[in-house]
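Researcher: Batch entry, complex prediction.
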Amino acid sequence: MLIRVLRTYLRPYGSWLTAVVVLQLFGTIASLYLPTFNADIIDYGIVRGDTAYIVRTGGWMLLMTLGQIACSVAAAYCGARVSMSFGRDLRAALFRRVMGFSGREVAQFGAPSLITRGTNDVQQVQMLVAVSSSVMISAPIMGVGAIIMAVREDPGLSWLLGVSVPILAAVVGAVAWRMMPQFRRMQALTDVANRILREQIGGMRVVRAFVREPQETRRFEQANAGLTGTALRAGRLMALLVPAVVLILNGSSAAVLWFGALRINAGQTQIGDLTAFLVYLTQILMSVMMATFMLMMIPRAAVSADRIGEVLGTESSVAPPRDPVKSVVTQGQVEFRGVLFRYPGAAAAVLQDISFSVNAGQTLAIIGSTGAGKTTLVSLIPRLFDVTEGAVLVDGVDVRMLDPELLWTRVGFVPQRSYLFSGTVASNLRYGNPQATPQELWRALEVAQARDFVEAMPGGLDAPIAQGGTNVSGGQRQRLAIARALVRKPEIYLFDESFSALDLATDARLRAALRPVTRHAAVIIVAQRVSTIQDADRIAVLEGGAFVGFGSHRELLRSCPTYAEIAASQLSALEVA
Amino acid sequence: MSGAARKTVPGRLPGAGQPAGRGPPWMSLGTPAEKSMSFWPSARRLLGRLRPQRLRMACVVALSVASVAFSVAGPILIGRATNIIFSGVVGKQLAAGMTKRQAVDAERAAGHIHLAEMFARMHLVPGAGIAFKALATTLLEVVALYLASATFLWAQGYLLNEVVQAVVRRLRSEVEEKIHRLPLRYFDRQPRGELLSRVTNDIGNLSQSLQQSLSQLLTALLTLVGVVSMMIVISPLLALIALVTIPLALLLTRMIGRRSQRHFIAQWTHTGDLNGQIEEAFTGHELVKVFGRQPEVARDFDAKNDQLFGASFAAQFISGLIMPAVMFAGSLNYVLVAVIGGLRVATGRMTLGAVQAFIQYSRSFNRPLTQVASMAGTMQSGIASAERVFDLLDEQEQTSEPEAPARPAALHGRVEFQHVSFRYEAGKPLIEDLSLVAEPGHTIAIVGPTGAGKTTLVNLILRFYELDGGRITLDGVDIATMRRDELRSSVGMVLQDAWLFHGTIRDNIRYGRPDATAEEILEAARATFVDRFVRSLPEGYDTVIDEESSNISAGQRQLITIARAFLTRPALLILDEATSSVDTRTEALVQHAMAALRSNRTSFVIAHRLSTIRDADLILVMRDGRIVEQGTHEVLLTRRGAYHDLYNAQFGGEQTGEGERVADGGRARQSAAGA
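Model: Structure tokens for the complex:
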């Protein structure tokens, strides 16, 4: 997965990457050559006592150094460019993929996990690219260069390279191999610790009200201990690496000297070649070490890449149509035809045999007990989910065939959890209609019974809204969410328990104000309160995923026992009065 | 009392006298503006966190010194081995039986001054070959030396790992504990994603960079010291040259570092921003889609992503310059040594061997230098994160618990508000001069239009916020003088937002009382009708609820929170629109359970259900942060005041539905609609 991610997202920066390689190559050659100049100073300058030659060669060396630095700077520039562009592109790809997901995929991963994947995991892979573009490219160049030089110096000793390089690689590889699962666990435990922190921050009031700080701290402490334990194990393995490399490196040097001495004694090699060989051996093993250091980042990055790949590889279960219907006669009509909905893998259907149609100007209310499938039903209209069987039609066209943009512009959706975005009242109201004038906003607020409190807020329309809308009360949030849908002026209104946090008076006023506004639109209201829905044109009673009653309030009171029961349960209190 | 900031108001809030609401206060605070960097104070503070580990740190330093000492001595031994081989090679070429002096003199006579010099310094036995026995001994010494060095290095790495992990663990714990001590106001103004980025990304980055850099930094610095002292022994003059390049390297590092530090801070700030944006977009995912806002959200994301790219590119590139800069200083040193050393040998003031050894050392001098330099970037990034974490740790906490906390002699549940005033924002009073008495065992229903301050009122009982004036007493004791945990343990609460944590349904129910028995849990679940739907779940009480809780409905979540409060059996009960998402049939059942729960307990109920309100012992009618009326249902109805109006407006519809003969405006309308 790591390789696929790297290949895909580095491809646009191929030329930059090539530049890095070329620059590193030049830089490495320059640094491999510096000792040769030094040898010249000794052989020609010092031996002949030619001080002018010494100074001149020194000048060349300086020039070489400057060239090397220039290469390094340019390589650093290109490397930074490549790695950070890579990170940016990967983040953007991930973000776009998630935005295309349906509710099902988001729920499957969980929003928090998606956030971690989008930031932290991308960071890990990006870091790998950043380091690779400097060290991981130069180390092999240095290593190969040194091997060529070493073999040239003394082919008879080359077999030693064949021993010590594999030993080093094997030792380092074994350690890295054992570290891999630790890193994987570390990432998972980091997720756990982060999730606990998220929960604590999100559920702050509950934690405090139940005086659970000590337990929460203990819960976190457990996760922290687990994380620390794994990090310790990984760190202990890591602590083995450098000493092992030092030992192998110097053991090899001793071996080179010993076997070199044997060869010299046999007249097969020169002492100068032996010293040079020693220098190159050191260089080779150093670059192997550098490379393995960097290799250690790979397991970590690979885990992250897997997590990123999982997201990128997940197709939205609500795929946009291939050949979308781009224009329809705008009516504002919704129809369900024999709809069956089942979560993938689930045995029981959430909805079955649902058929109805709502025309423009009509209001359909859906009532039913908690978990009856009401929310799922309305979610099918804006295609937050797709039906398993049957079809949902908007203005006579299957929603799966409609251009999503076209579909969404005609739906005004007020979800059960009224969520507001950080910004201002106005920015939230304009969410679905950026061109709306202040007059239009006020009109929507008036209908939503939100005018008074918005006027009272400092700044009015420009009053700040915190993320999620946490700085306004639940009822205010709900009314702003309703106003937001109104500003869109859609042909279809979906209210999913949108009046639950309102007191009955506000609820009644709001619905009364809504009526003229939605005169030419199809309205579907999901509610729990009989009072909210009793004046709807038709009421559908949902029970266990199927309609058990369909008709007006009066009809249902007579014909549908479930409805009568619901009505009685809400009104029974009054009878006692 | 005036709106003068009390202790709980964080110092960073805009001044109390400032007109409120001109621009969002938490927006400007949430994204920390690029502040003056403070690398050293933060670095020092980070190092200060090593103090509890000082014994281990001392061991780490001692082990590093030992390891470095052995490894610095290594080249000398290898040099000796080379000399043995060289002597053998030279000796073999000379006639056997010659003395060393004769050989030296012969070379000198032949005009080979350098060779003669060299021979004189060598352990030379003419005619003898390589002394393999001596060579073997020396090489074994080399291996032993490095074995020792490696062992010390391993021990150092092992110990340092423990130290770093202990420090990081402590830091994580402190941040977590800090979260519980911050006033709720802090969370009201801090975007969640940004805060989370601090406690996750920044701590992660910090621990990673601490782990990477500390060990290398230590050995590199010690190696530098070792190598420099060896150089001084060989040639003070050349050592001086080498030492000139160190300040140069430091200066360059500092110059570059100062620039890149700014970008690192920006990088982590932008990471926090982006995190906030992603969090918001992913959480409001459905809305973004249905409202067709994907292009705008994507544009916003791209802008922030580009900002992050800009900052991280600059940070990466500029800090990437440190390495070449230091390499430049190192190479300059190398060239200078080669040239000046060469000149000195040519003029006969130094031996070639000495220059060679020196060059060897100045090469090994470069490595730790570049190592330190390459760590600089990591360090800077880590320190930038450390600063953000320290900022969080420095946030003003809620007022500390009183030293001698008061405690009601016996808990009856009598709550009194005395001239209470409170405001979220200075200059914008929310609750003013509010007084009320709740007698033990009574149910207090709070009614009033949305936004009247009902939720705030109950928040104050729990001391989620500190008062701006007046006081609240529980059984005669000012709650501000009580310990928060004692106060809160006597209060049970069901909030508007049904918050559950990741865990099984069972664990969530016993959240407030972990020691509850299985029977008690079942009893609570039965009483609140959780049992009914849990039975239909394949895994029953072991069903794991996730943070977003997609596997159970909103109503079911709320039932669980009711069961949770039920189980704690508190003296005081707070119910805030607790049943708004529960279907009405279930709710009717829950109401019965709640009624049982409320008996013998003082209960504050923010209710929209008539039954609760009517049965209440005291009804508070709130409007604009004030109690405009209080009394029982009957009394208030006969008074024909605010409650009467509210009652008619709110419950007229329900009564019409029931066919009762309450004539109001709503009736005709609704019957018409129903027909």
